[in-house]
Amino acid sequence: MDQEGPCLVVACDGSDQSLKAVKLAARLAEATGQPLKLLAIYPYAKSSSLVVAGVERGTIDAERARYGREVFDSAIPALGGLIDSPEEILLNGDPAHEILEYMHAHPDAHMVLGRRGYSMVRSLLLGSVSEKVVRHATGPVTVVGG
Description:
It comes from Marinobacter qingdaonensis. By secondary structure, the chain is an alpha/beta fold. The protein has 6 helices and 5 strands; from the N terminus they run E-H-E-H-H-E-H-E-H-H-E. Strand 1, helix 1 (16-32) and strand 2 (36-43) form a beta-alpha-beta unit.
């Protein structure tokens, strides 16, 4: 396990909800003096569909890097100038699973994420990343409503 000390980690995907989470995380980081990390997850379904389509590994890696850059670039303005050069972490897989694995490996991390705002029925039937993370988290989680 990585024992690097307390930090705030905000899950980003470029959505309006994740940008609200970035804004809140930046304010929390500034108020507490904790480092802020941006976490993006390239969905496993995207890379799987590219593999099935016969796309070369180098092309998949480039697509993953492009996705990460777009997500991180969209988050920077939401920081409001409060945080300079946050660490950027790009993972690959199921978003809820990857967030939970990250939290397990970094027990001092406080995760901040947006809620998609699905209807109650859809959330109950399908679940959501934020609900899965809150249900199984090993550390503090702040969910920002949309």
